[in-house]
Amino acid sequence: MPTRDFIFCSPETDTEIFLIINRLINKKSPEPDNIGPRLLKEIAAKIVDPLSYLFNLSLLTGIV
In whole angstroms, what is the distance from residue 30 CA to residue 52 CA? Predict the structure, then answer.
């Protein structure tokens, strides 16, 4: 009998994370950390690898 205590998510690639960042709307206000969409887009090429690692690690371990 299948259990309903988990969800499966496939790992995200660097390319997928990069595309998600570039689809952010520039006119949105930054969050309390003061990092807005425009800044994320400017540094996307440098942060996409660590971001995808952290995101996939979070999916794997279940820790947010």
Answer: 21
